[in-house]
Design goal:
mainly alpha, 6 helices
Length: 163
């Protein structure tokens, strides 16, 4: 595989991850298979993260991030691995909240939606800078925003109640 092939795979898996994230948020909001959808999102994003790491090695860190930012310009391997660690901490917090459902303690009913919101902001931070390049990139931003809004509307009342 050439670096261009790996880059194309990186873009494709990133977009797939964003789409599955939207489905996972909708599943949580509509209370339809939220845990399996969230686990699917985690699996798809893990594949994306592995492809990102492969691309970073294959292309020596050049043009790793949208807009052409290199790994060195973004802060190096520590920042990349730190953002991956943060992502998984947030994703697993959301998963724990979804798995606990109505039995979740109040702190988890707050932490789960907050973690999902931060993941949504990570996706938005990826796509928003690309909007001047192509208005197409507003679609994932709008879809993530709408799904997150619906999820939060359903989650906020649960934050206030006792289990």
């Amino acid at each position: 595989m050439t670096p261009d092939d790996v880059h194309a795979l990186t873009v494709m898996t990133g977009r797939l991850s964003a789409a599955v994230f939207v489905l996972a948020l909708l599943g949580a909001a509509l209370r339809w298979r939220p845990v399996p959808l969230w686990l699917t999102f985690l699996g798809v994003h893990t594949v994306h993260f592995a492809v990102v790491l492969l691309f970073a090695v294959a292309n020596q860190g050049r043009n790793l991030f949208p807009g052409g930012t290199s790994l060195d310009e973004a802060g190096g391997w520590g920042v990349l691995l730190g953002s991956g660690t943060l992502f998984y901490a947030l994703a697993l917090t959301s998963l724990a909240c979804l798995r606990a459902g109505q039995r979740a303690k109040r702190w988890l009913r707050i932490a789960g939606p907050l973690a999902a919101t931060l993941i949504a902001l990570m996706f938005a931070a990826t796509y928003l800078p690309l909007v001047p390049v192509s208005p197409f990139f507003m679609l994932p931003v709008a879809a993530i925003g709408a799904a997150l809004g619906l999820y939060l509307m359903r989650s906020i009342p649960a934050m206030r109640t006792k289990p």
